[in-house]
Amino acid sequence: MSFEIFNLHPSIMEGVRAQGYTEPTPIQVQAIPPIMQGRDIIGLAQTGTGKTAAFVLPVLDRLLKLQRGRIGAAVISPTRELAEQTCEAVDALAKYTNLKSISIYGGVGMEQQVRRLRSGVDIIVACPGRLLDHIWKSTIDLSFLEMLVIDEADRMFDMGFLPDIRSILRCLVRPRQTMLFSATMPPDIRRLVQEALRIPVTVQIGHSAPVDSVSHSIYPVKQHLKTKLLTAVLRSFETDSVLVFTRTKHRADRVALQLKRTGFRATALHGDLAQNRRQAALDGFRDGSVKILVATDIAARGIDVLSISHVINLDMPENVDAYTHRIGRTGRIDQKGDALTFVTAADAAVVREIEEVLKAPLERRKLQGFDYNAAAPEIPADAPRRPAGGGRTGQGQRSGGARRR
Ligand code: AMP
Description:
Layout: H1 10-18, H2 26-36, E1 41-44, H3 51-63, E2 73-76, H4 80-93, E3 101-104, H5 110-118, E4 123-126, H6 128-136, E5 147-150, H7 153-158, H8 162-171, E6 177-182, H9 187-196, E7 201-204, E8 214-220, H10 226-236, E9 241-245, H11 249-261, E10 266-269, H12 275-287, E11 292-295, E12 308-313, H13 320-327, E13 337-343, H14 348-358, E14 363-364
Helix pairs in contact: 2-3, 3-4, 6-8
The chain binds adenosine monophosphate.
């Protein structure tokens, strides 16, 4: 099937061709026609399925029919990284139109955003907190908004953003077309759907199971040997870009430092880094000067590097949804990926949960030649440090916490 069937504006088709897309992905086939008809939609799809273009293309098509220079469409993203990437996708696909977009998020000055907003934009990609700041200060005019996309709604919920989303919805006056994308549908998101969407069409790609172009394996290992095993794995596997997940920000820093000391081109990515350092880490990972990114869950949200060959869970994700999100970074369209998870005895329950969703046992592997019985140092070098109170990493979470299933 080709993109021609959607009857998109020729200038948008030029953008599609320039991106090298020849065939629409399944989520695009399902979502583009109802969006173009003006229907509200729920898109149940994870990253890596082409979901961004599934909403960006019909949104751009409609914007071309509206008066320019007024915000006709808004995408709400849970993180700065995802907002940046979505904005890049918009710019790439809108390259041959004269539509203007900006990303709006906190951690950078408001002034520059205000100036750009005043100069006239058609589409914004925003994180909820900063968008509300602009609404409350009347530095943004959403009175012409016709399309609203709530992207990665489940992650928004995890990060405690649902109250902000509801506040934003209350500030929008016009009847609008609303699109909500989520990899999973916890009850709070269902409630939001009932409040915000009108007779939505649901489009769904698979369940919350991880993409099947990924091979999954687990490496049982003692906690104190994890970083050693990571180094040994990185030395013996042929890898391209590697994304390593840790449970805490502190641990991401320490592991990245240890890898650097051992000669790897590694860096850490987490929410405590200043915006310019986060951007530098992401840019380095994208252009290949950084080969190994050591990240926490929320910081890694929205990372879109097509050459990620391996995702390594140095620490077990909290549950199967978090696993799905992490693994969604590899095995993207037309590519194969490997997901390695280091597990200790304490992770048995999550392993079982993942196996249930995958409907197959996870392959248990051992790295040849690795000394699995090496003694623990007196103070384990890589003991995970949980935050006081035993909670999660706390990457900017305001509420929510563990996902309810
Ligand atoms: P997403 O699920 O939106 O994060 O997209 C994942 C990746 O797929 C991005 O790098 C997109 O540029 C790419 N992509 C989206 N649509 C297509 C398509 N129809 N053909 C090939 N690649 C695509």
